[in-house]
Every structure is written in structure tokens, then in C-alpha cells.
Amino acid sequence: MTGKQNTREQAGSGPLPRTLFRGFGIHNSWSGQKFPHPGRRRPIIGDVQVSDPRNPILSILRLGAELGGIYELKVFRQKFVFVASADLTAELCDETRFCKTLPPAIGALREYGGDGLFTAYNDEPNWQLAHDLLMPAFARASMQRYHDIMLTTSQELIDYWDRLPEQRVDITRDMTKLAMETLSRAAFSHDFGSFTSERPHPFVGAMVRALETGRRRGGLRAAPGGKLLGNYLTRRIADDHDYANALIDELVAERIEDTSQHDLLGIMLNVRHPESGERLTPLNIRYQILTFLVAGHETTAGALSFALYFLSENPDCLALAQQETDEILGDDPDAEPTYEQVAKFRYIRRCLDESLRLWPTVPAFSRRPVSDTVLGGRYPMRTSDWALIMLGQVHRDPAVWEDPETFDPDRFLPDEIKKRPAHSYKPFGTGMRACIGRQFALHESVLVLARLIHRYDLTPDPDYVLRVHERLTMVPGKLHLTLTHRVPGAGRRPPADHDAPPAE
Ligand code: MNH
Fold first, then answer.
1. How many angstroms separate the CA atoms of 298 and 92, rounded?
2. Who contacts 241 (Cβ-Cβ below 8 Å, separation ≥6)?
3. Is residue 71 in some structural domain?
4. Residue of the CA atom closest to atom 6 of ligand 1
5. CATH of the domain at 70
6. Per-residue model confidence as pLDDT tens digits over 184-207
7. Residues of the chain below pLDDT 50
8. Could you tell me how far CA 347 lies from the centroid of its own chain?
């Protein structure tokens, strides 16, 4: 956390007992309360050895599996509290009592994201300003324009796949290209040419390195010598940061003269707030561009990749989804869905929802109380205390989800959703700081899935075992699928020789 956050968010006050010595000097001390933690804790360094620094979220999910609805890890003087149960999550999602906070790893991202939408503090004026200015860019009229872009980029993907000599494709790589291209064209009217090169755009690699370093530096803050090491890490990734900034300059430079585009960048550069007349500053615009590049593509790429993985592993679900595309799109494998048709792929949407249940690509978000309170009737929380909601666990809480490891899209039938308690499914976060791009991501994902499975059958490698990678977000690692062209509607049609007279 930066000094700023200390003054903003650590001003704990109120009637809770101060446990002077037990929690003293610990960041996020929860007044010295102890929660279950994994393994044997070492003096001073705490649980640092049990978690894997390269895959922190995956190792926490593994370690936390047996620890119940709330547990902790301590790394030097930094305590992390994790919430894994649906009932505590529902409480933390109550906006009258709790709000978003930036844990150290996200706080460290402010070096790149500044007061951009994702990394802004709740009360920073630029959050409200950018939110008000950019919300219309996600309203229905804008989505219609993005729809056409999504059709074009998905066609480029299809052309690229159809040209390949063998149709065994790297799904995560190609979904990343697709989502990057869609986002950059929709938001910035910029073509990155992702499908004309073998590798995804180097921006992704640069950002992975830069943000990973930020995350590590955030984790180091509470360690002895952490600051020095942090400065070293900062210098090491300076090139990546320069690279990202140059890219952003390029995006902006293209547009200084051209004020005709009403995309996200056009709004940021040219539109004033309807009431206050305020505009975003050039520095804030830079933060927003980076935020949208990062937040807007890998999350969606991961969601698409997991959905394709689950469909390929569940042939019955794939068959039902393909049948739906045949009903809506007909027998032409090149058919493009209209904007209105995208909302009609109900079964495909359920497959996507179910994928995001099992593998939410943004794996966690953080909450803190707006004033001192008690969580779950028994855990006092001061405003300086915060908890990470671990979606991978909440979405498998056996109190809510029957047979939670099974991929079953029908959990998202309207009647089933109604039966579940509120806030038991939160892949897009919650409240005023929930995902601004949710509709964009859902529209893109359903459209792309529909087109792809309408056109292709998907065959996984026979010995593939899902291995999740932590990049900026969670994505399936080394996922290859073999595509075979299908004949849409073939399953429905009577045999080809149905006109022939009976054989006897
Ligand atoms: Mn998105 C916030 C998940 C796609 C832009 N996004 C969030 C949060 C989650 C999330 C969770 C809340 C984090 C928190 O509380 O700290 N987002 C997703 C997922 C997908 C996704 C799972 C795809 C699937 N997000 C997108 C897309 C865009 C986008 C696409 C842009 C076009 N998301 C954002 C922005 C925020 C955000 C911007 C921050 C919003 C705010 O705080 O005002």
C-alpha cells in the first residue's frame, strides 16, 4: 500500500478493543485475531515458504482447500485474510457495510494504473469522472458497434485457422490474440495486426513481466530489505514500462488530429462531463488506456479458453451447444449472428457462466468495511482490515453448489439461479466497482463461441490434463484442440438418401 492509502484507509477508529501487542506492527492485523493457516509457521518469515511466488493464487487455492470459510497466510509482517465461503462473501458484498480496497499487490499496480478505473481509490475524483464519462461507451448503442468489430475479428481468426496446415491449434494463444484485437479496435480504433504474426502482440509479455514484478514488490513491502529489492525490481522492468508507454503514445498520437471516432479513446480525449464540464487529464488518459488494454483482453481470452476446454471435455454439452447454433444460425457454416441473435444463445451462455464458476479468470477481489464492524457475527473488522474473496472457492462452496467439481451448465437455468442465495456467483466483482466491461465480455464470448462451435468440432489431446497458468489473470496452459469442420444441422437432418425408396 502506498502512503496515500495509509491515510485514506488505515484510519481505523471506533469501539473495537485494541489488542495492543498481539497484532502490533502487522499489516492487516484484524486486531490480532487468528484464523486457520496452512502447515507449520516459521518465526519472522511466517508462511512465506508454503506459497509458490510464481503461482500465488493457485498455491493459495491449494493450501486453503481444507481451511474452512476464512483463513490466513502471514508473510513477514503482512497478513492476508482469505474468504472462501458463500455466506461471508454475501456479507462482504453488502455495499452499505463494505467497499473495494486495494491489497498490496494491486496497490503496487498504481505505478502503471494510477487513478485509472481499476486501481483508483473509491473516493478519488477521477474514478467518478471516468466512470461517468465511460459508462455510455458500454451502453447498448455502443455495443451494437462493437458487435460488428467482433464479427470482423472472429472472421480473421477463422480465416487464420482455416489456412493452417494442421488444425491443431493453441487455444489460449489464439483467444488472446482475438481478444486483444477486438478490445484494441473497439476501444482505440487501433489494429494490432495480431493475426498476421505467429506470436501474440509483445504488449502482453511486457505487461506480464511488469505487473508480476509489481505484484512481487507489493508482497515484499512488509519484508526486511523489501524496499531495496523493490527498487531493484523496478529498474529491471523499466524497459517494459517504457515499451508500454510508447505504445500508448502511439495510440494517442494517431488520434490527436482525428476527433471523429466515438470510441473509448475518443470519449476520453474529447468529451467533457455533462454536468461539471470536466475532462480527463492526459496522465489519467494514459492510465485508463493501460487499464483497458490489461483488464479488457486477457480476462476475456481466459474465459473463452476455459469454455472451449470444458466444451471439448464434455461432448454432450458441446452437442447441445452446437444444436443451439444450428437452430439459430441455420446450416451455413459462415453464418454471422446478428446483434439480437447473440442474446438467444442461452445454452452457450450457460456454458460460459459455468466455466467462469469453475475458473473465474479474475480469481479474487478485496473488500474492507466502511466503518468498524463485525463479520459473520464473530470477527471484528476495523476499516484498516481487509479480506480477499477467493472466487474459485466461493464458487465451489458445498453449502451452495451441489457436486461442485462437475461441469453442469444447467446450474444457470433461471430457476436454479433463483434458488441460490444472492452473491454466490461473482466473477465480475460487485457493487459500484464491479466490472465495467461485463456486457462487452459476455457479448464477445458468446458470439465467438457460437461461431466457432457452429463451424468446428473440437477434439482435445487424449492425455491433456488441465493446467492453469497464472498470467495477469488465470488461463488454461498448453491447451491444444484439434478442429474439424462440421456440417451444421447434419445431426438434425434425415439421412442423405432419405428420398430413395425403401431398400426392400
Ligand atoms: Mn473487468 C473490474 C472481471 C472483462 C474492464 N473486472 C473487474 C472486476 C472483476 C472483473 C472481478 C472487479 C475487481 C475488483 O473488485 O477489484 N472483467 C472481469 C472478467 C472479465 C472482464 C472475469 C471477462 C470475462 N473487464 C473486462 C473487459 C473490460 C474490463 C472486457 C473492458 C473492456 N474491469 C474493467 C474495468 C474494471 C474492471 C475498467 C474496473 C472498474 C471500476 O473499478 O470502476
1. 26
2. 112, 210
3. yes
4. 435
5. 1.10.630.10
6. 999 999 888 888 877 777 777 787
7. 1-22, 495, 498, 500, 502-504
8. 22
Ligand 1 centre to CA of 118 (Å) is: 7
Residue 52's pLDDT is what?
A: 75
- Number of folded domains that form the chain: 1
With respect to residue 58, please indicate whether it lies within any of the assigned structural domains. yes
- For residues 455 and 333, what is the distance between their CA atoms, to the nearest angstrom? 5
> Would you put residue 189 in left (φ > 0), alpha (ψ -120 to 50) or beta?
left
* Predicted local confidence at residue 54, as pLDDT: 76
What pLDDT shows up at residue 50? 65
pLDDT of residue 251: 85
Q: Which domain holds residue 146?
A: 3-9+19-485
Within a domain: residue 493? no
Do the domain assignments include residue 501? no
Residues labelled as active-site residues: 299, 428, 435
User: Would you state the cell numbers that stand for residue 136, as one nine-digit string?
Assistant: 455510455
Ligand 1 pocket, residues with Cβ under 6 angstroms: 100, 117-118, 131, 183, 291-292, 295-296, 299-300, 303, 361-362, 365, 427-429, 433-437, 440-441
Atom of ligand 1 nearest to the CA of 360: 22
User: What residue has cell string 484485437?
Assistant: 181
Across-strand partners of 367?
100, 387
pLDDT at residue 66, rounded to an integer? 87
